[in-house]
């Protein structure tokens, strides 16, 4: 399974607008340089557990929401990385590369009331079952729009 990275977004603090980036450094154990979660200033940063460093969503999921009548721009789901051609649900428990960086898929990234409050009514329902993936960075590297996304380890137990 492989796909590609089509957009990168970061925000310096919780609730602030996302900024599109062409490249970004992924930092092991932290997240994306300049992002609220790497800086521990995200809305959910105080919660314990893994899967709080990077979020991904498929461009295809955004298209389904748009087809359902809830028009979303790529930045509005508030995910860091927008992918194309990758079944993100299948990356849970797997180690994968995004450009030079290595990540591990931790769990689904469910759409929530907080997201809907920052966007518009109907977003949560439109993204139900396709809200994306929460991942952690296990090896530093630069990620660039257009980079390949590829599975490294199909049986990761981290």
Outline the structure in words.
The longest helix has 9 residues. Strand 3 and strand 4 form a beta hairpin. The strands form two sheets. This protein has a seven-stranded mixed β-barrel. 13% of the residues lie in helices and 36% in strands. With 158 residues, the protein is mostly beta strands. The protein is globular. The protein contains three helices and eleven strands; from the N terminus they run E-E-E-E-E-H-E-E-E-H-H-E-E-E. The chain has one domain: PK beta-barrel domain-like (M1 Pyruvate Kinase, Domain 3, Beta Barrel), CATH 2.40.33.20.
When the domains are counted, the total is 1
- Please bin the fraction of helical residues: 10-25%
The structure class reads mainly beta
What pattern of helices and strands is seen along the backbone? EEEEEHEEEHHEEE
- Counting DSSP E segments of at least 2 residues, the number of strands comes to 11
Annotated CATH architecture: Beta Barrel
Which percent band covers the strand fraction? 35-45%
Task: Give the end-to-end Cα distance, rounded to a whole number of Å.
Answer: 20 Å
* CATH evolutionary superfamily: PK beta-barrel domain-like
Average of the residue pLDDT scores: 86
- Biggest sheet strand line-up: 1-6-5-9-8-7-11
Enumerate the spans where pLDDT stays under 50 for 5 or more consecutive residues: none
Rg: 14 Å
> What count of helical segments does DSSP give?
3
According to CATH, what is the class?
A: Mainly Beta
Q: Could you please say which CATH topology applies here?
A: M1 Pyruvate Kinase, Domain 3
């Amino acid at each position: 399974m492989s796909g590609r990275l089509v957009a990168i977004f970061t925000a310096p603090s919780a609730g602030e607008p996302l900024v599109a980036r062409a490249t970004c450094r992924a930092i092991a154990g932290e997240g994306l340089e300049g992002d609220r979660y790497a800086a521990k200033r995200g809305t959910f940063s105080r919660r314990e557990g893994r899967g709080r460093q990077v979020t991904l969503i498929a461009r295809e999921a955004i298209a389904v929401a748009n087809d359902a009548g809830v028009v979303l721009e790529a930045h509005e789901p508030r995910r860091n990385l927008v992918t194309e051609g990758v079944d993100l649900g299948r990356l849970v428990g797997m180690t994968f590369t995004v450009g030079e960086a290595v990540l591990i898929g931790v769990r689904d990234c469910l759409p929530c009331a907080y997201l809907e409050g920052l966007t518009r009514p109907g977003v949560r329902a439109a993204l139900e079952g396709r809200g994306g993936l929460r991942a952690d960075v296990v090896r530093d590297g630069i990620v660039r729009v257009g980079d390949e996304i590829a599975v490294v380890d199909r049986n990761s137990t981290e």
